[in-house]
Amino acid sequence: MQATCLVAVVHGSLTPHWGAGGATTHTPLIGAEYGFGFALHNDPEFKATGEQILLIKVSYGGTELMTDWRPPDSVNQSGGTIGPDYDAMVGRAAPI
């Protein structure tokens, strides 16, 4: 199986509008990236760097974390192979 990674780039402030409902809808949902972004923003060590936060959100229906999205750390700890969707995501995100 070959994974296809489509990219939609959106820019703006992190608000509930940018959550699970997507940046192009008006559904006021909150995804995991909302809490993660605020945790980074409020971390004293990260704040000290003065860097901006870039969150990359990727998801596909009908995929599994354990196989399709399996990261190298999981492979190192438990064996198996890196997931094809993980590889595709990293390949597309690297130039960003």
Structure description:
The chain is mainly alpha-helical and 96 residues long. The chain has one domain. The protein is 35% helix and 0% strand. It has four helices and no strands. The mean pLDDT is 78.
What are its keywords?
globular; 0% strand; mainly alpha; 4 helices
> Which series of helices and strands comes N to C?
HHHH
Main beta-sheet annotation: none
Average pLDDT reading: 78
Number of strands: 0
User: Based on CA inertia axes, which overall geometry fits?
Assistant: globular
How many DSSP helices? 4
Low-confidence stretches: none
Question: What fraction, in percent, of the residue positions are helical?
Answer: 25-40%
Which structural category fits the helices and strands? mainly alpha
Calculate Rg over CA atoms: 15 Å
Distance between the termini: 25 Å
